[in-house]
Design brief:
6-phosphogluconate dehydrogenase C-terminal fold; alpha/beta; single chain; three-stranded mixed β-sheet; 313 residues; binds NADP nicotinamide-adenine-dinucleotide phosphate; Rossmann fold
């Protein structure tokens, strides 16, 4: 007889890259007796039904959370407060309520006031993603060897935190626990600022007058194309991230602008030593990420090399 699943019923609100990946991985690992899903649009709900990767698709959030032991909001950060308000009267006592938002302080403050004290509210952020979105974009392996950061309020029930941590570990993730505001500062530099820089560079290249669009695309392998992957990320999600994590992003942006000024000065003065020292330091950071298993050491980010045409005999 197979062991009882970790949760009898899991409700996922939102079925895009993250919700779709959680559903697929939870099903593959047998973590739920039943997985119930809802999504905002009828089109997404219809697509989830077609995909056949969950047990039930329902039309409303209220219906989805009924009798669920674990409820996860897999929707943009800005939508979490209103949805929490919507589901609050329908939550089962003792349920764990969580989310996957990329910003934690704002989500905590937007959701917590609506939730009854009979449930365990434990926000979470799986630090894993791609530039794709929508119901077809998820895959069961997304979280393997990636970090999931839980940001429980100080008075959170320890057993509930451990149960949610067990769930994320079963999806393949490593789990870390952190205060919400500290999470937002860390992610501002590791994720939000890089996205802002990518959005900026790609926009700048798009508006140049002396270099044509065709040239930008044709010679993109010089570095530009790696920014375009990040800059292709979902506009709704990233609008909400910058609105929700304004203070931490502005703080990191200030530090970044100072460092950019230093490099600008080194280039203007022809200070090769300053440039060389800086680039040597940053190279070591890349090697650190590879040694922690968060990136491949393969050249060109693991892209498969094309083959030369066969030599004519
Ligand atoms: P996604 O693929 O765009 O899916 C978003 C889902 O949210 C869809 O089901 C969408 O419904 C629903 N939704 C959108 N606006 C809504 C609203 N106002 N009210 C209710 N539902 C709404 O997005 P995702 O990449 O899975 O991101 C979901 C969350 O995960 C975000 O909070 C994001 O910060 C976080 N996250 C994302 C990544 C990443 O790399 N993408 C990584 C970690 C965490 P419809 O399909 O019906 O429109």
């Amino acid at each position: 007889m197979s062991p009882a699943p970790l949760f009898q019923r899991i409700a996922l609100i939102g079925f895009g890259l993250i919700g779709g990946s959680i559903a697929r991985a939870a099903r593959a690992q047998g973590l739920a007796g039943e997985i119930v899903v809802t999504a905002r649009s009828a089109a997404t709900r219809a697509r989830v039904r077609e995909l056949g990767v969950v047990d039930r698709v329902v039309d409303t959030s209220a219906e989805a959370v009924k009798d669920a032991d674990l409820v996860i909001l897999c929707i943009p950060v800005g939508a979490c407060g209103p949805v929490a308000q919507d589901i609050a009267p329908h939550l089962k006592a003792g349920a764990i309520v969580s989310d996957v938002g990329s910003v934690k302080g704002t989500v905590l403050r937007a959701m917590a006031p609506h939730l009854p004290n009979t449930v365990h509210f434990i926000p979470a952020h799986p630090v894993a993603g791609t530039e794709h979105s929508g119901p077809d974009s998820g895959f069961a392996e997304l979280f393997i060897n990636r970090w999931c950061i839980l940001t429980p309020p100080p008075d959170a029930d320890k057993a509930a935190v451990e149960k949610l941590a067990t769930f994320w570990r079963a999806l393949g993730a490593n789990v870390e626990i952190m205060a919400a505001d500290h999470h937002d500062l860390v992610l501002a530099v590791t994720s939000h600022l890089p996205h802002l820089i990518a959005y900026t560079i790609v926009g700048t290249a798009d508006e140049l007058e002396d270099v044509t669009q065709a040239e930008v695309l044709k010679f993109s392998a010089g570095g530009f194309r790696d920014f375009t992957r990040i800059a292709a990320s979902d506009p709704t999600m990233w609008r909400d991230v910058f609105l929700a994590n304004k203070d931490a992003v502005l703080e990191m942006l200030g530090a970044f602008q100072e460092d950019l000024s230093k490099l600008t000065r080194a280039i203007r003065r022809g200070d090769g030593e300053a440039l060389f020292d800086h680039f040597t330091r940053t190279r070591a950071i890349r090697r650190g990420i590879v040694s922690l298993g968060q990136e491949t050491a393969d050249p060109d980010f693991g892209r498969k090399p094309a083959h030369l045409p066969k030599k004519a005999d």
